[in-house]
Amino acid sequence: MNQSMETLFKESVEISSDFNEEKAIVLQLGDTLKFLGTIPDRTISLVITSPPYNIGKVYEKKVGIKEYLLQQRPVISELVRILKDDGSLCWEVGNYIDKGEVFPLDIYYYPIFKEHGLRLRNRIIWHFGHGLHASKRFSGRYETILWFSKSEAYEFNLNSVRVPSKYPGKRYFKGKRKGEPSCNPLGKNPSDIWSVIKNDWENEIWDIPNVKSNHPEKTVHPCQFPVELVERCVLALTNENDWVLDPYAGVGSALIAAIKNNRKAAGCDKEEVYVETAKKRIAGYFSGDLKLRPVGKPVFTPTGKEKVSQMPQEWGKEIQENANTG
User: Fold this and answer.
1) Cβ of 249: how many Cβ atoms within 10 Å?
2) pLDDT tens digits, 129-157
3) Are 208 and 238 in contact (CB under 8 A)?
4) Is 88 in a helix, a strand, or coil?
5) Could you check whether the bond before residue 226 is cis, i.e. omega within 30 degrees of 0?
6) What is the pLDDT of residues 77-105, one digit of tens each?
7) Of the residues 140, 266, 294, 325, which has the maximum number of CB atoms within 10 A of its CB?
């Protein structure tokens, strides 16, 4: 634990159930809207969350798309109220499916945020290699993060997300600076601090595995945030000691990402099992027992030698028959 971490969490790993600006970690079991009502105006530097997708998970009741969005409007209003003027909001969503039809939630949410005057800075694509397999359409392998700022004077820590330039020895070939180095000595802009995503900020595609059964962070939650996904936003959009809030905290991945990087963490969830799991994970982080996927770890690519990556012998006949009738 570094010196600044010791300063922020020097007394104990206390998790408060009620919001208090003097605390460092707040996690409440209860209703999100009521919890947000206890937070003062312009307090939070980063709101980052993945709201319920209205797809019928155990923690939600599936309703029509219009009713679903209507339910989210008061929550969004509160989030804008408590967001600092230089703060950011990252809204991670997938798709709502009704009778086989896809409704891209980021498109439906965008005008709601614009009604509050927020400015869209990036529409980031989070790509992952595994998920549910579809049979009547292509299988979905991405979700989106809408990054909004509250004002033009938003926080963006460029130096926190730089990586070494690919060609640091490159020089200007004409003009007044001819012959001088053309790259930034601190690294490439824009980018991130993990080598696995050198091109991710440029292309707005983040290749991070989603949390499935063999992921080291997997818990009881069916739609769990990878901690690495949140860390990128925390590092770029906040400073140490800032408040990071997840209004739908689940099992606490956003809170852990904030704590890990010396930010204050706040969250709420209505499911007791998730809140208790989040508390255990936070305690596990401080004790050193929490399993996390290392930041920047390359996504595994099979070599072809693994038995699981080889074609089953039983498929040979079927593939040949398909080729003959194709």
Assistant:
1) 28
2) 555 666 676 666 678 899 999 999 999 98
3) no
4) strand
5) no
6) 999 999 999 999 999 998 888 888 889 99
7) 266
